[in-house]
Amino acid sequence: MWNVLNGVRILDLSRVFAGPAATQVLGDLGADVVKVEEPGKGDEARGFGVTKEMVESGITVSPSFVALNRNKRSVAINLASEAGQRAIRSMVRECDVVVNNFRPGTMEKYGLGYEDLRAERADIVYCQFSAYGNVGPLANFGANDVALQAHSGLMSITGEADRSPVRCGTSVIDLHASLALVIAIMAALMHRERTGEGQMVESSLLRSSAHLMNYFYGEYWVTGAIRKPMGTANHLSVPNQVFPTADGSVVIIAPGDDMWRRCATALDAQALDRPEWRGMLDRQRHRADLIQAMTAVTLRLGSAELIDRLAPAKVNVARVNNLGQAADHPQLAAIGAITSFEMDGREVKAVASPFDLCGIPPAPNRPPPLLAAHTDEVLRELGIGDSDIEMLRAQGAFSQPRTTTSGDSR
Amino acid sequence: MWNVLNGVRILDLSRVFAGPAATQVLGDLGADVVKVEEPGKGDEARGFGVTKEMVESGITVSPSFVALNRNKRSVAINLASEAGQRAIRSMVRECDVVVNNFRPGTMEKYGLGYEDLRAERADIVYCQFSAYGNVGPLANFGANDVALQAHSGLMSITGEADRSPVRCGTSVIDLHASLALVIAIMAALMHRERTGEGQMVESSLLRSSAHLMNYFYGEYWVTGAIRKPMGTANHLSVPNQVFPTADGSVVIIAPGDDMWRRCATALDAQALDRPEWRGMLDRQRHRADLIQAMTAVTLRLGSAELIDRLAPAKVNVARVNNLGQAADHPQLAAIGAITSFEMDGREVKAVASPFDLCGIPPAPNRPPPLLAAHTDEVLRELGIGDSDIEMLRAQGAFSQPRTTTSGDSR
Predict the structure, then answer these.
(1) Does pLDDT of A303 surpass 90?
(2) Which residues of A fall within a CB distance of 8 Å from B331?
């Protein structure tokens, strides 16, 4: 972690992916992130994808929780209890940012809405993350990543031509949303630095999905075009897709006219460097013929040979890796994209935040917290005395709710 | 646009998607973004996906360029000319941030590397964006979004089970990278505010892709699992996928135990609320049976009926929209996710940056710039006198390079 946000304390009431991924980046930047979880149960993501085999081999916390919750401390507070709500309001006085992703209205129901919390701390940055936003016909619909892949039309352009759409294999809308939240929070902190004013900032899975779809919507608004799935190909340029080789497959991309010329020359000038394919619009128009001619050439060559010919010609070419090949590729470690921390006595690897600040040496990471591990420590740091902590405890602030409230979260 | 970054001037030498998408967010936040383009030709993205039909109907700039280049001014400078390089070095003295996405070494070749530019402006924030990072075995490989979808393994988990992988339909790695760049630049500006120090910040398509794949890599590193495509389903929880209905299809997601119970009850308690499916691990183990039983139920109901039953039960459910349905859905406009600007005398809609700063009223947007429209204006603002501008012009700083250098960009 870096020291950029040292001194910024974040009370993170969010769970599952987008919110926790956002606060992890803020933690990586040096913020003090206090993760508030439900007593006894914790962030549901702790259990996601944990199989019987994993439990039997000693893995009880999910890889997705581990991937998104380093550099945080965990306190367990029952938000449904009046004492728990009082504890949060006390804590907010010493915090700079509050993050939540409850359904619209839930925080208000708990007495923890923006107006409630700014009464405790006037310059609080209050971050509301939701599925579809706080107003409009879908405001009260719950959703997750896959729901927004469907709603946004991303699914409708992902898949093989003339077959059913599929999802993008990773939680792209959640993770993209997480970086949007980080930006919104940093912008609000910069605004506060200059003006002394806090504010509410918002984002949603819907806004994240729309940003990912921006040029498709823009095209539709102007031309009415409704794009469809194209397998591995791309409507923007030709060639720009996977090609089969003698021993596997590679992606070859040569969008610009110069790059296409170099590509054609490096592969088979006679077959490919045709005058009628030299312009970008020409290649679009003759897409099918060009792909067929390219395929005839690539099928004659091995993947390594293709890469050896195209890379030096500065044509974009890449292997189609599986997860293991990708995760273990030496390039990933070489650029510092892998970070680590100690957990249960062993070194655990994780993907670093997706940027590097070359002028600031990083400090070691905190591992993802055990549920409730820091409740007393954090409350004390936030100025709540031992006798008050005991009273809150006696009143049920830190105990499991009688009926679980997790169903109210998105 | 908001006023958070008013006073921050960004010299943006990047082209195509990730860099321009990043600087658009910075422009939306109030930075003064000066887009440096190649004289005569401009950012290649100006031509992406422009078809003959579009040109004939008066659309000469691509929807993707329009989607990613508002709130910028364009200056055209030939970076391959000595006079052009001198112009850039002069401009840098009055800039806070420089962004580029040339291949590693190109900026240095132009005399515009970090060391060169910090000699002009000691506290410059220098943002280097590349395909695979600046070091390591792939540092000199060019790539684009699809190449990294292949390299990162994202493609290997996207598609139908037991069929060839496909790409995620949008440029998810580029756009995710753009938000990572914004964070890195804002972090560097905050660090500069506190310490007076500039620095180099970096990101890459590889880092963006790794962040999107973080929990898959994390799982692989711990368990060795190499996930495969699952159509619309998800290895993390069951049910979490598209189901066919009597008249279409909907996504139904009920990952938690409580939500699953509500889902089963709302649909067909007798068929679905079975004791052996009540725990998350149970549903994983009995995935095939559960999906089969769910499908038998959903096929009997229309999509609207399914939504009417599941939404009030707080079960996540969503329609599978096409691009037009998604772009025109009233929810998108209701939450302010659509912005606009005037271009060629008409109002053009675009997707807003993916967050809202509720405490800061936004100002109107600038439309995407015509190529080179602001060259003289910007140079003058940056303190370069008219006679110097004329000299630079006479020396070829603003003219088309004799042999195009676009092939050197990634």
Answers:
(1) yes
(2) 132-133, 136-138, 206
How many angstroms away from the CA of B384 is the closest CA of chain A?
Answer: 30
Are B99 and B204 in the same domain? yes
pLDDT digits 0-9 by tens, A137-171 = 999 999 999 999 999 999 999 999 999 999 999 99
Chain B hits for A231, Cβ within 8 Å: 164, 166-167
B212–A68 C-beta distance less than 8 A: no
> Choosing among B54, B59, B146, B310, which should be mutated to test the A contact, i.e. which has the most A CBs within 10 A?
B146
Q: Does B388 reach chain A within 8 Å, measured CB to CB? A: no
The share of chain A scoring above pLDDT 70, in percent, equals 98
Interface test with A, best of B118, B179, B181 (most A CBs within 10 A): B179
Structure tokens at B366: 């600038």
State whether A354 and B176 contact (CB < 8 Å). Answer: yes
Same-domain check for residues A78 and A29: yes
Task: Assess if residue B217 is contained within a domain.
Answer: no
For A43-57, what is the mean pLDDT?
84
Closest residue of chain A to B220, computed from CA coordinates: A324
Tell whether A111 and A173 lie within a shared domain. Answer: yes
- From A319, A342, A374, the end of a domain falls on A319
| Nearest Cβ partner for B136 among A55, A148, A331 | A331
Contact B144 A253 (CB under 8 A): yes
Mutate to test the interface with A, among B148, B194, B211 (most CBs of A within 10 A): B211
* Domain contains B375: yes
Residue B153 has pLDDT above 90, yes or no: yes
Q: Is B241 on the interface with A (CB under 8 A)?
A: yes
Domain match, B250 and B389 both = no
Distance from CA of A375 to the nearest CA of B (A): 25
Q: Are residues B197 and B268 in the same domain?
A: no
* CATH number of the structural domain spanning residue A308: 3.30.1540.10
A66 in contact with B, Cβ within 8 Å: yes
pLDDT for A311: 95
What is the structure's pLDDT at A401?
82
The answer to the question of residue A365 being in a domain is yes
pLDDT in tens, A1-25: 999 999 999 999 999 999 999 999 9
Contact status of A159 with chain B (Cβ, < 8 Å): yes
Chain A from 95 to 154: CB within 8 A of any B CB: 103, 131-138, 140-144, 146-154
One domain for residues A284 and A358: no
Whether pLDDT at A409 is above 70: no
Q: Are residues A246 and A206 in the same domain?
A: no
For chain B, what is the domain count? 2
Domain co-membership, B314 together with B340: no
HSE-CB at B288 with a 13 A cutoff on CA atoms is: 0
Question: Is A50 domain-assigned?
Answer: yes
Q: Which domain holds residue B272?
A: 240-319
Phi then psi for residue B349, to 5 deg, are: -90, 150
CATH assignment of the domain containing A207? 3.40.50.10540
Which of B262, B294, B319 is the last residue in one of the domains? Answer: B319
Task: Check if the beta carbon of residue B313 is closer than 8 Å to that of residue B262.
Answer: yes
